[in-house]
């Protein structure tokens, strides 16, 4: 199958490769970065920049945090670049992107996801290497709170954000149309979220402790990988935003190593008629993140993506229940 190009003319694999090279370059620049000052100084405490979610925003692996990405403080500019690989049972996800944080107030990011359908896709006649792909453009704004300076208050950092998803998956065989359009959902859509995050520097047993929760206002099918909304048996497109909760908790064993978990609910719209590709189910993970310095973080996790898609087995279409596996992500900070 022909690879779907990005708007800039890069193929998905080339784009992800470029992100990986950029991340490696950032790590190589670590000694020079320590000497910077002024607008591009990294004034934040180590690890308070968080890691990068698979959608490109600062947070955990699955969820955004209210913190603005990078290590900039007021009147500074910072940013990150990331690459993530996730083997989730029969599937594989590659994601990469970058963000910029401005004055610890606004975050702008872009990300690319390629989701390999593997064996289930092959069983449905899509081929063994069919990818669902999307570009994600995000903006986050911090409304109130300061992660470090509000230690004598229970006030959290509160942010709002929006994410525009552009599904650029390949064509459904014989249709000439983007697969999500052919299956009855829409190829693009926008999510909105509100998130509150509290960091205690002297938290549980005297260690950094982070608790975060938020609401995602969305009509996305599996975070947009299967499009937005859907068409039930009646043949009439059905959409409408759902309010779905998400939570994140992290505990630092020391200043460099954090362990924690995430939970993210998903709406369910009918996609693909009898194929019933959008089975729904919450996404969740257990992770460990290592922050050796302000230029790099490494995150490993066990992730469960619920029930994604269906496959042909014994002549019947059945849900693919094995969507859990291992996750590895690198984030470079500049």
Outline:
The protein is mainly beta and 334 residues long. Helix content is 9%, strand content 43%.
Notes on the protein architecture:
By secondary structure, this protein is mostly beta strands. The chain has a single domain, classed as Porin (Beta Barrel), CATH 2.40.160. Helices cover 9% and strands 43% of the residues. The chain has helices at residues 12-28, 30-33, 118-123, 179-182, and strands at 51-52, 58-59, 77-88, 91-102, 106-116, 131-144, 157-167, 188-200, 209-218, 242-252, 257-264, 283-293, 296-304, 310-313, 316-319, 324-333. The strands form 3 sheets. The chain has a 12-stranded antiparallel beta barrel. The chain has a two-stranded antiparallel ribbon with strand order 1-2. β1 and β2 form a beta hairpin.
CATH architecture annotation name: Beta Barrel
Care to count the β-strands? 16
**What's the CATH topology label?**
Porin
- The figure for the number of domains is 1
- Report the mean per-residue pLDDT as an integer: 84
Helix/strand/pairing category:
mainly beta
From the alpha-carbon coordinates, what is the Rg to the nearest angstrom?
Answer: 20 Å
Q: Going by CATH, what is the homologous superfamily? A: monomeric porin ompg
